[in-house]
Structure formats: structure tokens, C-alpha cells
């Protein structure tokens, strides 16, 4: 059975978080040679390479398994410290992956429900909800807001609710591209706003309406707030969360391409199945905020 020492796991995690052996050595107050020796000892124990000596350093598939173990061990140590030193001990460092639209609409409300005593460190990673489980699977994060219901191995999956999107354009855009009202034929020529190249919402709507693959002009704007601003300014049409288009629709500045047509994206909370007070607390507030914000 492969067994790693806690010092080795701590070094392994620090190397990946620091990006280089030298930076890890500085953080751990040891020499770079000592860091290198610990990693080599781990690789000898595992019988395979765990780290790619790239810039920054990254894991091999086997190293991703060790990374997950190292993160779990650190969190368990932090939880123990919090119980033994209730007034001073840290509750841990949680790394979470969240999709951009959740970050911009409801997820920060969840974080606001956590104790504000400075004892919990959070790192948020932004990734599309269709791809976020890849980071969970690799061990890079401990929990994820994702559109994937099937739990990653070693994780639990809990439904959060549904995020609803509407196909939206500005009133001026509609007058320019659909002067006689919306038609599928006109949609094939109208510019579209895409979040990034992994964004499928607009393409799915286009195919649903026209029965074709989209080939119209497109703009990539990888920021939720600026995406909405681009739609408001008439640069193109796009799929917007209801929370971001509700006021514009009420005022008449924004218009639905197909009134009443919704794209419903179910969201799930996947997290490691470890006994962790910090992760339990985070999961509870995420569920609370999602119940209030999502359909």
C-alpha cells in the first residue's frame, strides 16, 4: 500500500499552489533541494511521475489523485485545529469552482451568510457549468456549482435549482434586424454575443429556432456584466439570466426574441464526501442562497 508522510503531502500541495520548487521552498522555509527530494521520494513510493516540471508545475493523472489527497488532508487538519483552538484556529482554505452567471447573480449571497471572523479562506475558480466537474475530478477544487448531476467519484451531488435564461436583445437591435418582427430567417444574419468558446446557450437556442447550425457574426465577451452591457448596447442578441434582464424588459429597453421561451439549466452542488465543518458550513449556505434565487 502506498503511504505518504504528511510533510510530503504538504510539500506536494505547496509546490502546485506556488508554481515552482523555489517558490515552494521559500513558503516552507526549506531549501529547493529539500523540496525536490520530498517530491522524488513520493514519486518513488508511487512508482510513477506525479508532477510535470512545467511552468507552472502541474500534475500528471496520478498526481491529480495525490493532489486530492493532499487537499483533503489539509482540510482535515484545519478542521481539527478549529476544534482544538476554537478562538484562533483556522477553519481551512476551500477552493470552489462556480460558473460566471452564478457568481454574478446569487453565489455571493451565499458567501455573505458565512461567519465573518476571518478564519476561513476561500478561493473561487470560474468555469462554465458544463465543464466545472473536470476541476473537481482532477482534485483542483473541493466543490463545484455544476450542470452535471452524476456525482464525481468520491463526491456527493445535491440539486440546487434551475437557472433560467431568455433570448434578449435591445429595442434598437430589434428595430434594425427584425423591423417586421422576429423571424427565424432574420436570426440567421443577426449578430450574437457569446460568453466564450465553450458557451453553448446561444447556439442551442439558434438551432432550436432555425433547425440549423449557427454561422452568423459573433462577439466573445467573457464577463457576465459586460456581456449584459453588450446586449443592452445593441452589439448582438444573447441568452441572459432572468435576474439580469428583468428590469430592462419591464422598462422596454430590452426585448425577448421569442417571448416566453426559456432555456432552463439545472444546477447541482458537488462536493467531496469528507467530514469537514468548513465544507459542511459552505454547503449549507450555498443550498440556502440557491433555494431563494433559483427556480
From TrEMBL:
This is HTH lysR-type domain-containing protein. InterPro entries: ArgP (IPR017685), LTTR (IPR050176), LysR_HTH_N (IPR000847), LysR_subst-bd (IPR005119), WH-like_DNA-bd_sf (IPR036388), WH_DNA-bd_sf (IPR036390). Transmembrane segments: none annotated. GO terms for molecular function: DNA binding; DNA-binding transcription factor activity. The keyword Cytoplasm does not apply. It comes from Arthrobacter alpinus. Keywords: Activator, DNA-binding, Transcription, Transcription regulation. Residues 4-60 form the HTH lysR-type domain. It comes from the Bacteria. Belongs to the LysR transcriptional regulatory family. PROSITE patterns: HTH_LYSR.
